[in-house]
Amino acid sequence: MTVQNNPRITEQLEAWVNENKGHAVLGTTAQYIPALGKVDPGKLGICMIDEDGHYYCAGDTDKEFTLQSISKALTFVALSCHYGLDFVLERVDVEPTGEAFNSIVPFEIHRPNKPFNPFINAGAITISSLLPGRNGQKKFEFLKGFLEELLGHPIEIDKEVYDSEWATSHRNRALAYYLKEANFLELEVEEALDIYISQCAIKISVKDLALLGLILAYDGYNPITKVKHFSEEIAQVTKVLMVTCGMYNSSGNFAAHVGIPAKSGVSGGIMAAVPPKLHSQTYEFRAGAGIGVYGPAIDVQGNSAAGTMMLRQISKEWDLSIF
Amino acid sequence: MTVQNNPRITEQLEAWVNENKGHAVLGTTAQYIPALGKVDPGKLGICMIDEDGHYYCAGDTDKEFTLQSISKALTFVALSCHYGLDFVLERVDVEPTGEAFNSIVPFEIHRPNKPFNPFINAGAITISSLLPGRNGQKKFEFLKGFLEELLGHPIEIDKEVYDSEWATSHRNRALAYYLKEANFLELEVEEALDIYISQCAIKISVKDLALLGLILAYDGYNPITKVKHFSEEIAQVTKVLMVTCGMYNSSGNFAAHVGIPAKSGVSGGIMAAVPPKLHSQTYEFRAGAGIGVYGPAIDVQGNSAAGTMMLRQISKEWDLSIF
Amino acid sequence: MTVQNNPRITEQLEAWVNENKGHAVLGTTAQYIPALGKVDPGKLGICMIDEDGHYYCAGDTDKEFTLQSISKALTFVALSCHYGLDFVLERVDVEPTGEAFNSIVPFEIHRPNKPFNPFINAGAITISSLLPGRNGQKKFEFLKGFLEELLGHPIEIDKEVYDSEWATSHRNRALAYYLKEANFLELEVEEALDIYISQCAIKISVKDLALLGLILAYDGYNPITKVKHFSEEIAQVTKVLMVTCGMYNSSGNFAAHVGIPAKSGVSGGIMAAVPPKLHSQTYEFRAGAGIGVYGPAIDVQGNSAAGTMMLRQISKEWDLSIF
Amino acid sequence: MTVQNNPRITEQLEAWVNENKGHAVLGTTAQYIPALGKVDPGKLGICMIDEDGHYYCAGDTDKEFTLQSISKALTFVALSCHYGLDFVLERVDVEPTGEAFNSIVPFEIHRPNKPFNPFINAGAITISSLLPGRNGQKKFEFLKGFLEELLGHPIEIDKEVYDSEWATSHRNRALAYYLKEANFLELEVEEALDIYISQCAIKISVKDLALLGLILAYDGYNPITKVKHFSEEIAQVTKVLMVTCGMYNSSGNFAAHVGIPAKSGVSGGIMAAVPPKLHSQTYEFRAGAGIGVYGPAIDVQGNSAAGTMMLRQISKEWDLSIF
């Protein structure tokens, strides 16, 4: 893989990073997870990768951060890959909900026979508990191996973030015990939470996110290594989820103003998949791309404040919306 | 406009109509609106139109029916066209909600400063009350004129359906008085409901729906008449709404399994917009299309039972998903 | 009936009025009903009546005000009187709810087969619609006649308050249409609301409220006129409702700190029934009493701010709690 | 203490036990706690005690059972006794809620600054965590000591029931983690649950319940031993809670039809406090009484089916209602 062969694109990205950096003041770092709360909220970085493997990077791209909710999309893919989409869709629905990502209300009111979707915490914890493996450790190792294969390099957990979240996740424990009572979990609560909090604490870079976005854009196929990692069907459902539920409770607004399937995390990361769009009149990225963004100041919905605004501008200028 | 120049496509559609007709037993006609409840639940028809104006029709395509909730998408377009998208998005949000289309719960719990989206009844009644015109009648005339211009022919209200809904819409009245208290309505409740129930009762055919779908697929442009009816921006937000909220509480499943922006109504109609997708390997409709479907037996979510299954098959076979 | 034969009691009441007057600053007059919003919030008055018909009055007792929610208790009695308690309890439950008096949420969530209790608006509007009479006017006349018989004098509606509430009761209309859809109402919505808003607008004095409280304390019997107006059973259920739901969402706190069955209204009135308590060590009112209070500055729950505090003091000093 | 000096009363109680035994078929033993689910649902027993220490017992009175939710009333008293009522009421409210005893919905919707009342699980677990003692074990020992002093004999935990509930209380764990996040608990979740589940598993007899009821009826005073255990104020608030929230979601109906402050548990036990009522025309128990009931078949609300019906009859016949 080579980095950036087209300096014009990189210059353009650098200009947009500078233009949007200031939007970080509209957000703040995630205060409820101490280890996340203390990072520099002013950072903003982006990497894009095209189908030939060229990376175009601008801003703060060297800092690693944790996957947080971005992991929800990847665990969904991993599980679907192993057991097939039908197995997964029998256990987690794919309907958006207007409630908060950690809400118990819709469960108690509607008593659904499965969580509403895999991108709310209830669905994500359920998905994690279902991963293949005879115990929590094996299940997490499966996920880790799957991601390492996609990325082509080893990954690690940020132990400080893990510890920080483990100690403060009363709300997730409440949710998980609720799921346990509903018989949605295949593991004991503490084991299921261990996987979930571990996957949230995986360290990642914007380059990694861009590559993952590209593989999703190419329906499970890595156009650089020519490896087919997962089926078109799994990729499509994942992108549907990214559009309808990927950006917490502003998914609708993100779809309306950006229109790129994306998944965000409270660390400030965003993974976006730009599918090919040959009929577009814009020259750049008509053959699709992957995007990784990092901007740790998050807005009230939980999305990178500056990152969201920057993607809005990029999508508009380069006509990247799927709509 | 000429009807069907490619007999192979029509034959294929006829085969799919026959294959999917039986799925009508999974639904029933809308019993809570007497005039809708008494139609033949076994009917199923489809029309597709391509960018050259060729129609491909199969099954029961001569029966007219009423727009019902499909009108919500059109009123949103009409209002946005007149006042601009910013004006509308200040007054109605574009976020999906997991609650029923006529639910009051999210309002009372969250006390939002605008309805969640224009495709739930709360948002739709609000939109209708905001249409240009100094009273209810003028406002409805504006909408009617807008639709007639899109369709190129006069439209009419089904008086029996209108009367039936007017007399039984206690729940919509409850909702509208709730909206009135929240200061969302520009009209008195009865006037706002009059427009809303009128727009639901507009008579339409699957050919009409196909044409409207085509104009949305072409971002507000009619490729046959070469008329630009509304902006790309309005079309895109409308398609986002169709994907995230267009099929009531199975919008997520429809997006996952069909992947075409669509809006349904409890009359059993569906309007779908197939955008161009030049990179698709399938020959048919790579340049986009509009689809109109009619199948009056609706499932528990409110969507045509047979129509939904048929679209699932068509989308898969012809690779029409935007995801 | 003679007024006050025991000057010591009246002096004591006057002292307590003066001590508690200042608590009015903890509340404000009901702003959402314009005609109520403009009265002097500083007023405070009380009347007590004993079983011999002696009145003990202090403070602002000459000003008439409107019944508002106090009417809910009286309509319940009137309806039960005519059709029997079983008839009524089949149509309205007697369970407290933690939700607001005008909430639609519990209906949509629990879909009960009857309103939770007759003291929330849903139950009260239902009760009003069920009153005997072949139309709304006859039904209201029945209620009016019933109250006049209890009070021994004609009553009138405050037309300004009626008009004010009629024009602004969007939320009650929303609720009533909801009830209509659930088939709880025996009348059309507008007719049912007319009775409900009329009963709320009935003019009353603290002396009247005291007498009504005494009749409830004496289980439907007026110890002065020796007339039995309604059954012990009806009186007891009414007092249960007063304890569990009579003071809106601070009924529990009122019961804990005052312990007297009472019903309040947003006009600032309170009707309280002090049952006989012969084992009490206090001399005053061991044979029971009725209490009427007026203090138009209401707290966030909707109860007279100064009136509630004054009743707390009186109950404590004279040991009037039923608990 | 002597057992029954008035054979007529005992005979009457025996007749009522026999008359009401059959109502057990309207309920079933608590299936969600395996150790409770397997007891004989047909049993029914009652003990009453008067102010002179005479017991009147009938039916199945020798079988011990567990306190379950009855313990909520006792823990509230114990905590109030030690820290004072003000301390407790700052940390738990006394308002009834229409939601289920283990509901999380009202917390998420209303975000109250304290649980609604100590008789829903949220309030009860909070109360237990606040008991005096530097850890969970000390806190439970405090409660145990308090109860043993009231009862005059040692008490024990039913280990099988404790184990059964500990293993299956996912929902209570969910609730407790929710409370932990809201900062309501003074202990770690597992420790707080340990006390709560221990108190629920305390073995008790109908004679014990009768004595506890008598002490509550006498406002914290044991008229037999002449010991004042707790203040009148604490007793009164406890009785208010018993009336408004003591019988789960049929507290209102129980108050309307029985009218005696009571607390039930899913084991089928009921503790009731009959205050003195000298003005009553009935001879029996005009000076007050305590009642203990056991009937393990519970209705959908969680109350002893036969026990509730029997108390309804007894209250009516002997005029025991406080209303």
UniProtKB/TrEMBL annotation, chains A, B, C, D:
What family does this chain come from, according to its entry?
Belongs to the glutaminase family.
Q: Which reaction does it catalyse?
A: L-glutamine + H2O = L-glutamate + NH4(+)
Q: Which InterPro entries match?
A: Beta-lactam/transpept-like (IPR012338), Glutaminase (IPR015868)
Q: What organism does the record attribute this protein to?
A: Planococcus maritimus
What's the short name of a Pfam family annotated to this entry?
Glutaminase
Q: What is the top EC class of this enzyme, as a single word?
A: hydrolase
Residues reported to bind substrate:
69, 121, 165, 172, 196, 248, 266
Record HAMAP family: Glutaminase (MF_00313)
The EC number of this protein is 3.5.1.2
- In which domain of life is the source organism classified? Bacteria
Q: Which UniProt keywords apply?
A: Acetylation, Hydrolase
Under the GO molecular function aspect, what terms does this record hold? glutaminase activity
Q: Kindly state the subunit structure of this protein.
A: Homotetramer.
Any one Gene Ontology BP term: L-glutamine catabolic process
Q: What is this protein called?
A: Glutaminase
